[in-house]
Amino acid sequence: MPGAVILCGRGSKRFSTCSVCHRPCATQLCDYVRRVGDVGHKKTCDAALCISCRYTPDGQQDFCPEHAKMIREDVSAPLS
Q1: CB neighbourhood size of 72 (10 A)
Q2: pTM for the whole thing?
């Protein structure tokens, strides 16, 4: 249907735009740790993700497709 809009929420709650599919329904942020700061503060990717676009291998952390690929490759790598 031309001009159709997909709504992912109800009421007046505002959602961020998903960085993958660009729908206005992102409720998660990518938890991939990019670096650790001087005082041990973790800096995460924080890409906005909707439930459909996130990868959640342990049921608690959410990852964007780019970092999910890195995690999958790391897990499947042979131990040396």
Answers
A1: 13
A2: 0.70
Query: What is the enclosing helix (H) or strand (E) of 68?
Result: helix 65-76
pLDDT mean across residues, the chain: 82
**How big is the chain, counted in residues?**
80
| DSSP state string for 6-65 | -----TT---BPPTTT--S-B-EE---EEEE-TTS-EEE---EE-TTT-B-SSSS--B-H
Tell how strand 48-49 and strand 28-29 pair up. antiparallel
Residue 30 predicted with pLDDT over 90? yes
Query: Which one, of 6, 50, 52, 46, lies nearest residue 30 by Cα?
Result: 46
Q: Which residues contact 50 (CB under 8 A, 6 or more apart)?
A: 8, 18, 20, 21, 23, 25, 26, 27, 28
Average pLDDT over residues 48-63: 94
